[in-house]
Design goal:
Blueprint (H helix, E strand, L loop, with lengths): L6 E3 L9 E7 L2 E6 L3 E6 L6 E2 L3
Antiparallel strand pairs: 1-2, 1-5, 2-3, 3-4
């Protein structure tokens, strides 16, 4: 379960860089990515990978 503040990567868009989860409501995850800005991702279709740095 992704929670606000966690760092993630989108394996389908590696050029977006690392993002920080802003919210996770009903499987819709809002992430602020370093290179792509704020993105809303359907967590049922894209599995975001947590970054442990």
């Amino acid at each position: 379960m992704l929670e606000p503040g966690m760092l993630v990567r989108n394996p389908n868009a590696p050029d977006w860089g690392i993002g920080q989860v802003q919210s996770n409501i009903g499987g819709r995850v809002t992430v602020n990515f370093a290179e792509a800005g704020k993105q809303v991702i359907d967590g049922t279709h894209v599995r975001l990978l947590q970054v442990f740095d």
